[in-house]
Design a protein that fits this description.
Length: 253
């Protein structure tokens, strides 16, 4: 059985309030982590992100999943709940990104699902082994080899999403892992919003992971990097991250 250590960071950045939300649920076997970034441009973004986290965690607790397809179905179920919660006023057009990670500590496996440009990174042997692919215009340009990945964070349309919760079911894109991914002690996972990953390159993600003693220390180093990169941007976005470190369970004495 694997041991899991978790850390969470959420900062309102240069905004007047925080539209990000994150949380987790854990049993003896599974850990489910959810992070969401409400769409402030649509109104009710903070409500949407909190609803997404609460509803998805509740749905998982009621019916834990064992693969990405089943988790994606729960994301779609949460989208239906968000649409039903809309009412005239600030929440009438609320949207949010969402990314969800599930780790099975007994089977040494992980699966995930997401919608939008909040990301999940999986680190193996100190390197990025995989990350989710954003549902965004700039990601589609990168995938079509029309834009270099290094230029995603400076493109003038970098905030244009192709999918987010709050869209009609037929238009919603949900990405997910397929078969459960084998994981091992020493692996790490990071869920984060675009206000976070936009200011941290892959090399710093990896180098800061290698020297950190705890997941809290890792997030602190990453947040300091975000702060340094945004010091001349007084209205920079909220930024949030959730880190999970995987280790072996200590042998019984």
């Amino acid at each position: 059985m694997l041991a899991l250590e978790l850390a969470i960071l959420s900062d309102q950045g240069g905004r007047s309030y925080n539209e990000d939300a994150c949380g987790h649920w854990q049993s003896e076997r599974q850990l489910c982590c959810v992070l969401a970034d409400g769409a402030g441009g649509h109104g009710g973004g903070d409500v949407a992100s909190r609803l997404a986290v609460q509803d998805l965690l509740g749905a998982f607790a009621a019916a834990p999943t064992s693969d990405g397809d089943a988790l994606a179905a729960l994301v779609r179920q949460t989208n239906a709940q968000l649409l039903a919660a809309r009412a005239p006023g600030p929440t009438q057009d609320m949207h949010t990104t969402v990314v969800c990670l599930v780790i099975d500590a007994i089977n040494h496996a992980a699966h995930w699902a997401h919608a939008g440009d909040s990301r999940m990174y999986w680190f193996h042997d100190g390197r990025i082994a995989q990350r989710t692919r954003d549902h965004s215009l700039v990601q589609s340009l990168v995938d079509a080899q029309l834009l270099a990945e290094a230029d995603m964070t400076t493109h003038k349309q970098r905030n244009e999403l192709l999918s987010a919760l709050g869209m009609p079911e037929d238009d919603l894109l949900v990405g997910n892992s397929s078969a459960p991914t084998d994981i091992a002690a020493g692996d790490a996972f990071l869920l984060c919003t675009d206000g976070f990953w936009e200011y941290v390159d892959d090399a710093f993600f990896e180098s800061s992971l290698r020297v950190a003693d705890t997941p809290d220390a890792w997030l602190a180093a990453l947040a300091a990097q975000v702060g340094q990169a945004t010091q001349d941007k007084p209205s920079h976005d909220n930024f949030s991250a959730l880190a999970v470190w995987v280790s072996a369970t200590p042998a019984a004495s």
